[in-house]
Automatic annotation (TrEMBL):
Lineage summary: Bacteria, Bacillati, Bacillota, Clostridia, Eubacteriales
Localization in the cell: Cell membrane
Record's keyword terms, sorted: Cell membrane, Cell projection, Cilium, Flagellum, Membrane, Transmembrane, Transmembrane helix
Recorded superkingdom: Bacteria
Chief location category: membrane
Name under which the protein is recorded: Flagellar biosynthetic protein FliO
Record-linked Pfam families: FliO (PF04347)
Amino acid sequence: MWTSLIQFLLASLLVIAVAAWGSRALGRWLRPRPGPDGLEIRAVVPLGGRRLLCVVRWRGDDLLLGVTDRGVSLLDRRPAGGDEPA
């Protein structure tokens, strides 16, 4: 009885360890990378419908973009890494 319980626990730990390792490897593989011209999407916030806010890093600047089904508007532009305290 104890041997089957120990075997079950060891098998469960092995499955959990393999799942954790696999999800971490998959996360690294799926992580967005900057494009060839340095374009990188930093954050996306859906606002409902077909509207969203998007922060894009491009050529050393962070751009806050408003995106709708009618177009894209530049709302703010700051040097990358220039986070200001709230």
